[in-house]
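Changelog-adjacent note: as of this version, every example in the card shows the full chain rather than a window. The one below runs 116 residues end to end.
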Amino acid sequence: QVQLVESGGGLVQAGGSLRLSCAASGSIFSINYMGWYRQAPGKQRELVAGITNGGSTNYADSVKGRFTISRDNAKNTVYLQMNSLKPEDTAVYYCNALGYDSSWYWGQGTQVTVSS
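Full-length structure tokens:
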């Protein structure tokens, strides 16, 4: 089992920045890929950014050039640096881990609110 704990959400004005953190514990060796998803009210959960064990990254088109995903393997932590935030970035952000056995793990979510 893998446990994920997010932190770093909050309220920020448009154009501002936030950094989300996701600390993983448990069966860390079983994780193949980690990502950040978000879900806005009335919308489906969507992938924002992801990173493999090898460090390869992928991003949603809507956040490319503004968000950066990174990982600190020594701390078992994944970060999402969010710059130039827009009101449409407002959502609950969830950390996700995908195991080599295709197991999915989710954090509890952290609210990000961007005011105009």
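Structural remarks: The chain has a mean pLDDT of 95.
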